[in-house]
Structures are given as C-alpha cells and as structure tokens.
Amino acid sequence: MPEKHNIHTALYELKDEQDKGKISRREFLRYATLLGMSAATAGTVAGIPFPRRTAAMNIKRGGVLKISQQIQKIDHPARYSWLMPSNSMRMVFEYMTLTDADNITHPYLCERWSASNDLKTWDFYVRKGVRFNNGDQFTADDCIFTINQWLDKDVKSSLLGLVGSYLDPSGIEKLNDYQFRLHLKRPEIAIPEHFFQYTAQVLNHRTFEGDMKKAPHGTGPFLLDTYNEGEICIVKARRNYWQKGFDGQPLPYIDEIRFIDMGGELAPQIAALRSGEIGLIDASDNPGPQIMKAVKDDPNIRVLPVATATTRVLRMRVDMKPWDDNRVRMALKLCQNREKILALAYQGEGLLGQDFHVYPKHPEYCEKPIPSYQPERARSLLAEAGHPNGIDVNLAVGAEWTDIVRYAEILKQDALPAGIRINIQTMPTSQYWEKWTEVPLGITPWTHRPLGTMVPNLAYIADDEGKPVPWNETRWVDKEFTRLLNEASGTLDVEKRRKIFCKLEEIQMTRGSIGIAYWMNTWMCPNKRMKNVKAHPNLVFLFNEAWLES
Q: Quick one: 372 exposed, middle or buried, by C-beta within 10 A (0-12, 13-18, 19+)?
C-alpha cells in the first residue's frame, strides 16, 4: 500500500528510459510528479534546474483588473461546457491539483498523493488549514463529495466519461478527515491531471445544492460579488485566503476583477485592450491569431505564445442518418483540403490533423500520414452507401468563431465535387453551446489536454451501462477502441503506450466519427501592467499571485 516516503517502482524504469534517451527530461519530470514525487525533487533527479521561489520586488497591492469575457450561464461547475466560466469562477473555486503552463502537475488542495505499484490504488492527502470563504473547514469530505458529483449520472458531468471509466462511487474510501483512498477498476496514470480538468472545481459539501451562484463557497482567493449572465461577473479579494505570496503576505494582490461581456465580436475587444480600457481578452473561446496580430506591435501589450492541443472537431452523430454509415462519414472527411483549411481559416498558425483526437506533441502520439483531399473517392463512397446523387446536409457552427465559420465555408466549397451539398447554419456561440451535443453535424471547439488518453475518455466511449458518456457528442462507441484505450490509460511505458495508440488512431481514422483538419497555436495578450502572468496551454487564468503595476 502506498506510504508517505515510498518511491514508486516505475520511477526507476522511467529514469532508465531517460538515461537511454527514450524519453526527455521534461517527460520524466511530468510522469514523476504524477506518481507523487515533488517537482523540485523530480527536477533534481532528471537534471533539470528547478528555480527556487524568491521574494519578488516592487509588488503592488490593490487595483481593479478588467477582462473581456462572455458571461455564460452557470449552475454546476462539473457541467461547464467551455473554459470561460471556469476562468472567472476559478477565482472563487479551486482544484485538488494544479497542472501548470509546462504541463507539470503540482499539489494544490491536496498537498500530496501516492500510487500503488499497479496504479490501481491511490492515496490523496488533503491540505490542512484551508477554509472555504464562508468559514467552513476544508476536509476530505469535500473532495469525496465533489468526486461523487462527477460520478452521479443525474449531474451529467463530462468527468463521468473520464473519471467514471476507472472509478465507481464504491471505490472511494475515507481514511480520516484529511486522507482518502481511491480503489480503481483498472490502472490509471493520469489521475492528478484529471483532477485539474476545468470542470473539476472543488465544492463545499455542506452548502452546495446544485447552483454555485446561490452558494459560492469556494476555497479561492476571491469572493463572488456579482454574476449577471450576458453582462458582468465581479469577484473581490478575500482577506483570509490560505496561500501567502512572494512577500510572505496573504494573497491575492489584486483587489477586484471584473469580467465584462463585450459580445463575441473581436474588433471592439481589441480596441478596448489597446486603449487600456481592459487588461486582457479571455481568448479561450476564440484563440485565433487575430488578437495576436492586431496587438503584436503595441508597446503596452505582451504577446505570450503557447503550444497547445486545442482544435476544432468536425463531428457527426452516428445515431442519425446519414452519419450512421461509415462510408458517408469517410466521404465527408475526404473532402477536407487540410492545407487549404489551415492556411485560410487559421492563417497557417498550427499543425495539420489526421481525423483522430491525438495531438502530434502528445507523448503517446503515433505518426500517421496526413490524409489527402479526395473528392472522387468520396463520391464513390457515397454511391456505395446508396447516395448516387449525393446528399444535402446542415452544418451547425457558432457565428463568433471566425476560423470555424471559414472552415465550414471551405468545406462547403470543396465538398461539392463529391456530391455533398452543405447548408451552413450559423448561430450565436452561446446557442451552439446549448445544443452542441445534439446537432447531427457541427464543428465543436475542443481545448488542450496534456495526455493523449484524456480526450478519448471524455468523448469517445460509453459508460458502464453502454450509454455514450455526457461529452460523447457523436455517440460513437467502438468496443475495440475502448479496450485499447483502457489498456493505454494504465500503461506507464511511453513506447508501449505509443504502440497501442498506433492502433487507436487507425481505428478512429478509418471508422470514427470526427474530422480534425488542424491543431491551433494560441496566445495570451495581456496589458504590460499585468505582472506575474504566464500563458497556459488551456488559456486558463492563474492569477492568485498576479499584480497590477501603477
């Protein structure tokens, strides 16, 4: 059973793989921290200089930070559809772990964890001395309650697909007020990263009854003051927060943050950023190069690039005609002229995709050729499927996602020679998010995840009853794919996992339900008055220790 000072046996194998050049030092650091080793110790073992935290100079306290953000409908954090509401609410609600901008996972509300050698038993140790903003003591009961919310089918959380694939409520054991144990159905390496999914905010088990606005009792550095959907969210600093800053004084440094809904059009937001009216645009919903290119020469704004697995997914409902026929799905995928789509929709700022949801920089990625544009083969497949005269389909897209709209327009043009006649149905992005799992054909934004196993568990499997998990928007479930994914999720050896992914990727390419034409470069562009901020691959906001220069 895991003990406090035990070194997981897999770490010796990982170090040997690093020494032989099979994995990088950064990959060793990532997996060592997942297995419970501190980042500082893992960095020393891997030979990576780990900077010590030093007192910062000229920290300024106070001030109001204004951020442009769409203020979306919220009730339960486990049901967030997208990153924006999590960015405002992460000022109030926190996570058991924290995956940083370098994809390294650190302790947070859980101060440490350990795993059994077979990766099926995990002990988590809850940080003592933390209180919710209503004064309640934070304990293991709050973590257990939160995890059970994810696993409750009535909540309909996306985490049911991710965490529920290896954990049942019966597998959660409370050891004492500050320690709990997870007994897994199968081995899993990435649990600490799963606990930092943006839907995984920790709840107060005493007060939460389904609506976070009615009981905004989080452990975070700010208090929720105002939340008016479509208008504004205001959070104000609390003065009894558990963390201390660089100067040894309580956090946060900023007095107030105002998230202002300026609509989906980028032009007025960019103008407000350049004028100093706002300090930042929340680009998590629209991370394209438009903002970066508009402000890159502005002396008052920083451009912070970040590599990311963010993408746009052309998704087809396999429980609806004509997408229940794989020949029709393949025909549409063959109509993607990927180089053209990336160049015209996203100004070439990214990497080409291959119709499987694994990013080329994921550690388990197995290289595959980029599918070519083949309208004649697509037409033949349609004829084989009983559509010799082609098909007419509706494609749903969010109007404010400019690259998605352009993607749809290019696909419409290039699908015509194959006999696929596309009617583009644009709608406000807020409306798309209300029906994104229901439309027969759409293009959905998917954000970055640090491991290739994570999105497939969120989006392409079924629950224990055989029903597609909440975020399986295409309803595609493949038994062989699921079996291989479960095997990969419990395989620590990167090369062995990559061999499994060669099969997984091939299955999704040849009989799957999605097209992925490109992966997206992203940027954070804050006003230079914002200090101590770093771009995260998910474009999440980690502003506990940020301050505003006068």
A: exposed
Q: Which residue has the tokens 């967030």?
A: 80
* CB atoms inside a 10 Å sphere around CB 510: 12
Query: Tokens 């429980």 map to which residue?
Result: 319
pLDDT surpasses 90 at 207 = yes
| Spacing of C-alpha 150 from chain mean position | 16
Question: Domain for residue 497, yes or no?
Answer: yes
Q: How many CB atoms lie within 10 A of CB 302?
A: 17
Per the prediction, the chain carries an average pLDDT of 92
- Give residue for tokens 């002990």: 123
Alpha-carbon distance 90 to 259, whole Å? 12
Residue count (the chain): 550
Q: Is the pLDDT of residue 11 over 80?
A: no
Question: For the chain, how many structural domains are there in total?
Answer: 3
430 and 504 assigned to the same domain: yes
Instruction: Classify residue 239 by burial, with Cβ atoms within 10 Å: 0-12, 13-18, 19+.
Output: exposed
Q: Are strands 391-398 and 420-427 parallel, antiparallel or unpaired?
A: parallel
DSSP letters spanning 18-39: HHTTSS-HHHHHHHHHHTT--H
- Give the per-residue pLDDT at 420: 98
pLDDT, tens digit, 9 for 90 and up, residues 28-82 = 776 778 778 777 777 677 666 655 554 456 899 999 999 999 999 999 999 998 8
Question: In a 10 Å sphere around its CB, with 0-12 CB exposed, 13-18 middle and 19+ buried, how is residue 218 labelled?
Answer: buried
CB 327 within 8 Å of CB 463? no
Q: Would you say residue 493 lies in a domain? A: yes
* pLDDT (mean) for 328-349: 97
Same domain for 372 and 265, yes or no, is no
> Residue range 208-219: average pLDDT?
97
**Both tokens of residue 58?**
């000229």
Residues 361 and 292 grouped into a single domain: no
Q: What is the pLDDT of residue 1?
A: 33
The answer as to whether 323 is a domain residue is yes
Q: Quote the CA–CA distance of 429 and 416 in Å, as a whole number.
A: 26
Map residue 313 onto helix, strand or coil: strand
pLDDT the model gives residue 19: 74
415 and 473 assigned to the same domain:
yes
pLDDT of residue 31: 72
pLDDT over 70 for what percent of the chain?
95
In-domain check, residue 285: yes
Residues 6+ apart with CB under 8 A from 317: 323, 439, 440, 441, 473, 474, 475, 513
The closest alpha carbon to 238, from 141, 130, 142, belongs to 130
Q: Give the residue numbers spanning the domain of 483.
A: 311-520
